[in-house]
Specification:
- With 409 residues, this protein is of the alpha/beta class.
- It folds into three domains: 70 residues, Winged helix-like DNA-binding domain superfamily/Winged helix DNA-binding domain (Arc Repressor Mutant, subunit A); 143 residues, Nucleotidyltransferase, domain 5; 156 residues, Nucleotidyltransferase, domain 5 (2-Layer Sandwich).
- It has 13 helices and 16 strands.
- The strands form four sheets. The protein has a five-stranded mixed β-sheet. The protein has a five-stranded mixed β-sheet with strand order 14-13-12-15-16. The chain has a three-stranded antiparallel β-sheet with strand order 1-3-2.
- Strand 12 and strand 13 form a beta hairpin.
- The chain is globular, with a radius of gyration of 22 Å.
- Pfam families: ROK.
- This is Xylose-responsive transcription regulator, ROK family.
- InterPro entries: ATPase_NBD, ROK, ROK_cs, WH-like_DNA-bd_sf, WH_DNA-bd_sf.
- Belongs to the ROK (NagC/XylR) family.
Length: 409
């Protein structure tokens, strides 16, 4: 069973996200839309008002009976920065207290450079300097790979070529702000739970396809991290015993068979595309009706469907959400995916819905920013010292003990 504090974390964040997206809302409407009891909504909104995040507004019109008081966001309560880091570019967003993206930027980035963390800090500093308005609460960073702890932020990533890179420490030192670091798909799952199609569901499987294959797992309203933060590595499920070498060092992993790099490699081998062509050319050929290109995507969909069916049978989610760069070719993936996926499900799971979302870098970075926005309700202590610093900036933490500083550490 999930802990009551974990449910509270999700519910209070969901209240902010819903009001931010829908405008001033009554408690009764919140309870109905979020499928939470009126008593719990009253409890959570009372605390959010005390924390300075919500404010009671005028009464809503009523056709009879006592008019309801509307709740609205305190617009200047705070903002957060989120950044998605991949091997060749970064996407940075600024979001309001409700998670709504205020502005964004995408820039080239060389993760393999010896000065990568310094350059990242420089670009974040420049982006932060272009904002104004509400106080800046902190920075959330999403990376492909394993992260020791959100509040520590030491990263191991084969995609970035990083081993034990102290990203969180470096950014905190350079920016003098609270910094939280998380696996990018786990961060994305948080954003989906608050702002996307996962909202209202407590058991969700978020799958990403593109440069890699990953999954974020939400169980009973909590993102599952596993022993070392690496839960959800569906891309490294073994599929072919003597298959191609994967970047993890194994052979025949799902990612080594269906990632964009794998599809391009196979397309070149089969002379579907030229030696210098990439995924965009392969997708264009499939869109134009080229049978060879379409078959490559369909076969990838078949493999993905078989593996995903097994994962769904194990985890029993309410909904599966698929997104990432690869969904731009989803109509070609789907020919192989749908029959393989449905055939692999046990009877009780055969009706599980699969939602395919349009890929946007902004959503990934929004997920990273959600790491910061969820810290005021982090009763589990996952955000550690950085969460305490965020709460101080928001003004909801207890008084700082003598000799302590409110700055980043």
């Amino acid at each position: 069973m999930p802990s009551s504090s974990a449910r509270a974390d999700v519910t209070r964040s969901a209240v902010l996200a819903f009001i931010g997206g829908s405008g001033p809302t009554s408690r009764a409407d919140l309870a109905r839309e979020l499928d939470v009891s009126p008593a719990l909504i009253t409890q959570h909104t009372r605390q959010l008002i005390a924390d300075g995040l919500l404010v009671e507004l005028d009464h809503s019109p009523s056709s009879g009976g006592r008019p309801a008081r509307l709740l609205g966001l305190v617009a200047d309560a705070g903002r957060a920065i989120g950044v998605k880091v991949v091997a060749d570019h970064i996407t940075v967003v600024e979001v309001g207290i409700d998670g709504t993206v205020v502005r964004s930027a995408t820039e080239p980035f060389d993760a393999a450079s010896g000065t990568a963390t310094t350059r990242l800090a420089e670009r974040l500093r420049a982006f932060i300097g272009g904002g104004d308005g509400a106080p800046l609460l902190g920075v959330g960073v999403g990376v492909p790979g394993n992260v020791e702890e959100q509040a520590v932020g030491t990263v191991d990533s084969t995609q970035l070529g990083w081993q034990r890179v102290p990203l969180g420490e470096a950014l905190r030192r350079e920016l003098d702000l609270p910094v939280l670091v998380e696996n990018n798909v786990n961060a994305l799952a948080i954003a989906e739970a608050l702002h996307g199609q996962a909202r209202g569901h407590e058991n969700v499987l978020v799958l990403t396809i593109g440069t890699g294959v990953g999954a974020g797992l939400v169980a009973d309203g909590r993102v599952l991290l596993g022993r070392s933060g690496g839960a959800g590595e569906i891309g490294h499920v073994p599929v072919e015993e003597d298959g191609p070498l994967c970047q993890c060092g194994g052979h025949g992993c799902l990612e080594a068979l269906v990632s964009q790099e794998a599809l391009v490699h196979r397309a070149r081998e089969q002379r579907v595309i030229g030696r210098d062509a990439g995924i965009a050319v392969l997708r264009s050929l499939a869109d134009a009706g080229d049978c060879g290109a379409q078959q490559l995507f369909s076969h990838a969909g078949h493999l993905l469907g078989r593996v995903l069916a097994g994962v769904v049978n194990v985890l029993d989610p309410e909904i599966v959400i698929i997104l990432g760069e690869g969904v731009e070719s989803w109509r070609h993936w789907s020919f192989g995916f749908e029959p393989a996926f449905r055939a692999g499900l046990i009877p009780r799971n055969r009706a599980v819905p699969v939602a395919v979302e349009t890929w946007q870098d902004d959503r990934w970075a929004q997920g990273a920013a959600s790491l910061v926005l969820s810290t005021p309700f982090d009763d589990q202590g996952r955000s550690g010292e950085q969460g305490r610093l965020v709460r101080e900036r928001l003004g909801v933490a207890r008084s700082v003990a003598p000799g302590e500083s409110g700055g980043a550490k």
